Amino acid sequence: MHRIFKNLLFYGSLLAAWALIAHARIWPPYLLPAPLDVWQSLRDGFADHSFWIAIGISMRRVVIGYAISVVLGMALGFGIASSKFLEETVGPLLTSLQSLPSICWLPLAMLWFGLSEKSIYFVVITGSVLSITISMESGRHAIPRIYSMAGRNLGAYGWKLFVYVLLPASLPHLVSGLKQGWAFAWRALVSGEMIVAGLGLGQLLMMGRDNSDMSMVLAVMLLIVLIGWAVDGLLFRSLERWFERRWGLGATA
Amino acid sequence: MSAAQLSPLEPKETLHVVHPRHLSGYEASPASIRLAAIEQSFESRKGPRLVALNDINLDIRAGEFLCIVGPSGCGKSSLLSLIAGLAFPSRGEVRVNGQIVTGPGTDRILIFQEHGLFPWLTVGGNVEFGMKMMGIGRRERKERVEKYLQLVHLSGFRDSYIHQLSGGMRQRVAIARALATQPSVLLMDEPFAALDAQTRDMLHDELERIWRETGCTIVFVTHNVRESVRLGTRVLLMTYRPGTIRSEFEIDLPRPRHIEDARVAKLSGGILEELRAEINKAVAAEYGHAQNF
Predict the structure, then answer these.
(1) Alpha-carbon distance B191 to B291, whole Å?
(2) Taking CB atoms and an 8 Å cutoff, what residues of chain B touch A249?
(3) What is the pLDDT of residues B262-282, one digit of tens each?
(4) How far is CA B215 from CA B105, B145, B186, in A?
(5) Record: contact A164-B133, CB cut-off 8 A
(6) Which terminus of chain B, N or C, has less C-beta within 10 A?
(7) In the CATH scheme, what is the homologous superfamily, with its name and number, of domain B64-89+98-107+186-287?
(8) Are the Cβ atoms of B119 and A246 closer than 8 angstroms?
């Protein structure tokens, strides 16, 4: 309750300060719209369905791209962790590639795939696959040896050992990577959509810029933040809580 | 003291709950184990090869409760891994019922000191695990889960998570999980070392009962001599590195035994004396000088 009050106070004053500065007309409204203008843009956007459509398209892209990343990243991470050779060669390469902002892949993607959805998927996947790969790799190493010994002892071989022992044993370590991967995927998606045409939230941002509609730009930015935050808060927090309940407290730490 | 002042001694057996034999659900087809000329050595990065086990020749009778004691670093645990098929000897061979061990199998289940239960499964899920891997049908798995949880007195905990249990309860789940595959050999690697004395005593009783009911062969590694005499039909004393068999003791005390029993204590004393000599060797090797206890 106390915390909610603090946040109400904080966001209330933030809005009030914004409204005051906007009202003072230090900058013209097309550079700094008032909160109410942004609210109006939000309502208009949802009323004419353009926001709903953009959200739907962006979500579909990020879900498909992210899902591919998860499968790919887990397979890659596990593969790398199982081979000393790969670990010493591919491992450092992946870590260094992670310093490359995912949007840097876009020129390459556009030459390969043109201005199509494929380019966006490519950027989303390259943006998120590395953090999942790296966390899976470290998760595989963090599995206590006793689990695989117990598993083999109880008759789990080959794929059964992987599916029933190694994979679940590495999951708590994977959660942080999945979470980070999601954040990167979402960012990469919006950046990609801004440059590659074809609807989506990123494209809405660019439309706002083209129309010099600053309140729409701010409204879409707000949406992007809210969706990213909601997925993180709802999906990943409950995933973490589930692990805490099953593995005991501190399992995902 | 006159005889009249003594309360009539009851036979010890009646103090124990009598468990019907059918409760254990199976009678193991007893397995004999033969280790012949075993040598186990490891490459070390610097210096010579580390010889963990040397010239081990051992016959374990079917249905025997064999206890192995020795100083840490004598290769007791390696021996169990060899029988379990989780490791292979550098030389020599391990045979179970005459068959050379070529890998792990659910006829030989290893129980670890740190229980090795899977935290992502419930208690019931853990007990079910081996049966699932063996391809046993759902209905039978469910029945056996009930049966073996009952056997270790954990019926009410089927849906609990592992982290919710105490150390003693976890070790009992590990025992139930092992028994559920109905193995003919139970390999136990200091299973009770991390438990408090009271819980340990209770588990000794339970293990002894399970052994009698199932008739399976048990190889039990411990550093606790009293425990080995309390439980074993035979106690094997191993030397410090390289691990060899120094001596063996047949324990023919009547059962059920108690760890504080005078006869148990007396037998333990003799074994302990020999063990001390090996521990001194271990200390000398590891700290560079002999130390007396």
Answers:
(1) 28
(2) 163
(3) 888 888 888 888 888 878 877
(4) 19, 20, 10
(5) yes
(6) N
(7) P-loop containing nucleotide triphosphate hydrolases (3.40.50.300)
(8) yes
